[in-house]
Write a structure and sequence with these properties.
CATH architecture of chain B: 2-Layer Sandwich
Helix content of chain B: 25-40%
Number of strands of chain B: 12
Number of domains of chain B: 1
Number of helices of chain A: 4
Strand order of the largest sheet of chain A: 1-2
Order of helices and strands of chain A: HHEEHH
CATH topology of chain B: Alpha-Beta Plaits
Order of helices and strands of chain B: HHHHEEHEEHEEHEEEHHEHEE
Shape of chain B: globular
Structural class of chain B: alpha+beta
Strand order of the largest sheet of chain B: 10-2-12-11
CATH class of chain B: Alpha Beta
Structural class of chain A: mainly alpha
Distance between the termini of chain A: 54 Å
Distance between the termini of chain B: 89 Å
Oligomer: heterodimer
Strand content of chain A: under 5%
Largest sheet of chain B: 4 strands, mixed
Strand content of chain B: 15-25%
Chain lengths: ~220, ~300
């Protein structure tokens, strides 16, 4: 084959192959785009910023129903309610208060009602040092035993605050009380369902978990 | 010219033209072309207040046209005497990922393909081997026994590698410590994404898709205004909230109060208290010398 002919053949091969590749790219016939399943919008429950519980002070501020706290609607002012313990020494909660499940302290060692409630005046709370606290000041009661936590809470390091980090902008920085998150009868933080995990752009196969797990 | 030379030349020219057309294929797929105004927009640091007012107006018009909701876009400047620091209590984090989704909702991040600035890592108790963390945990309920959870987002490093590598200075660190991105100056080269040791940077491979009903209209120029295809974005400490004195969205939603944020230059802030009084602190990858502003700590 002459050099001239070789050039011609090479040129023809190159032209044909380049054109074929170009057409393949243009018409998308080579690229296989994986169809990704649509990512559902997250449940708005996971965007909720409110606390799990409302404190007595919250209810008062909102003008809500306080009948749950009207102890003397049923109790007798002159007769303190009796404390009933079962054979193991555990508190028996009266059936009228069946919604209260006791679980305070490891092994339930702080389940005694009158460790916190004042039996002679049920609308008050009693820390061990003899003070009498109103329900709005329940944080001081919790702090009378949980001192380091109260100290942290006062400084803003424990619990939730909402609104402003900048104290000059607002007088009340909305520090949440203990009972806004913790049920005083069973204070352990309840476990919950987590929000959905990340959906990476490229679906990772079960065996090919990358070292960093990132996408 | 002979027949052969004509055929040869035309074959070469045709191939060349077809190859050129094929190489321009990505442009066909782009559906987010900038307008001439945006294309000729000045760099953030060179804009006069009048320029900025016009730009904010343009952004508000664009968002209204696209989403049917007129936003309020502001250009917030850093506050005097403020340097932000984030403290995260690893004893309290329960791994619920509410922070991840609150961030997405607040900052108008793309839902599909998904962009999330925060990634929560699950580590077994006693280990700090980040590279072996589980990003995709999905148990019935959290927290799980034997694990702890560590949310990671942009650490707003004092010595940011992403700022060093940006070829156009589209990203820089502001006086209050937040590393920001001028979305209209970013060229989308993704060098910052490669440089970041915390994988904090997110790139918009397509036009972000934000559902109209979940758009947050309270926006900032350097913050949560909707981005376009081909730009980087990342956590900016909710600049539209924090420069107005408010907490970032991730902190507000955290049910366990694990996140703490504030001004480190204020001795009475909660972050100052934490850094003075808590004992065990972790800064991720501190051996790299990035000096992150994120302090992970334990309560005991």
């Amino acid at each position: 084959m002459t050099a001239h002919a070789k050039t011609g053949v090479t040129l023809a091969v190159v032209c044909v192959s380049f054109s074929a590749l170009a057409l393949a790219f243009l018409t998308d016939s080579v690229q296989t785009r994986q169809a990704r399943p649509a990512i559902p919008l997250v449940d708005t429950n996971f965007l909720d910023r409110s606390t799990t519980r409302r404190s007595y002070a919250d209810l008062v501020r909102a003008g809500d129903d306080l009948s749950d706290f009207d102890c003397y609607a049923c109790h007798d002012k002159k007769a303190p309610p009796p404390l009933r313990l079962d054979t193991d020494g555990n508190i028996i909660v009266a059936k009228e208060h069946a919604d209260i499940v006791m679980g305070h302290g490891r092994h339930g060692r702080n389940n005694n009602c009158f460790n916190c409630h004042n039996e002679t005046n049920l609308v008050l709370l009693q820390p061990r040092d003899g003070r009498e606290l109103k329900f709005e000041d329940s944080t001081k009661l919790c702090g009378s035993c949980h001192g380091p936590t109260l100290r942290d809470w006062d400084a803003g390091a424990h619990g939730r605050t909402s609104g402003y980090w900048d104290e000059t902008r607002v007088k009340d920085r909305q520090r949440k009380d203990c009972v806004n998150c913790h049920n005083p009868h069973s204070p352990r933080f309840p476990s919950r369902q987590p929000a959905p995990g990340p959906h990476p752009l490229k679906e990772l196969t079960a065996t090919a978990a990358p070292p960093g797990g990132h996408a | 010219m002979g027949r052969r030379s004509f055929l040869r030349t035309s074959a070469v020219v045709t191939t060349g033209l077809v190859a050129l057309a094929a190489s321009l294929k990505p442009l066909l797929e782009m559906n987010d072309f900038p307008t001439m105004e945006r294309f000729l927009q000045k760099y953030y640091k060179e804009m006069t207040p009048q320029d900025m007012a016009k730009v904010l107006q343009r952004i508000e018009d664009e968002v209204e046209k696209q989403y049917g909701l007129r936003p309020h876009v502001r250009d917030l400047k850093p506050l005097e005497g403020v340097e932000f620091v984030y403290c995260l209590n690893l004893t309290r984090c329960i791994g619920c990922r509410k922070c991840v989704h609150a961030c997405v909702a607040e900052n108008n991040e793309s839902r599909d393909p998904e962009i999330q600035y925060i990634r929560v890592l699950r580590l077994p108790d006693g280990s700090l081997d980040i590279d072996k963390a589980d990003h995709f945990y999905a148990p019935e309920s959290v927290p799980e026994k034997g694990y702890f959870y560590m949310p990671v987002q942009c650490q707003q490093c004092k010595n940011p590698p992403c700022v060093k590598v940006c070829p156009v200075h589209a990203t820089w660190q502001e006086a209050d410590g937040i590393t920001v991105v001028d979305y209209d100056w970013c060229i989308g080269c993704r060098y910052c994404e490669a440089a970041c040791p915390y994988w904090a940077r997110r790139f918009n491979f397509t036009k972000p898709s934000i559902p109209k009903e979940r758009l947050n209209p309270d926006m900032a120029y350097l913050g949560n205004r909707p981005r376009r295809q081909g730009v980087m974005e990342k956590c900016h400490f909710c600049i539209q909230r924090t420069r107005a004195g408010r907490y970032p969205a991730c902190l507000e939603v955290c049910p366990a109060g694990a996140r703490k944020f504030g001004n480190i230059l204020d001795p009475n802030s909660e972050v100052s208290y934490i850094l003075k009084n808590k004992r065990v602190f972790i800064q991720l990858k501190e051996e790299l010398g990035t000096a992150p502003r994120f302090f992970y700590y334990f309560d005991v």
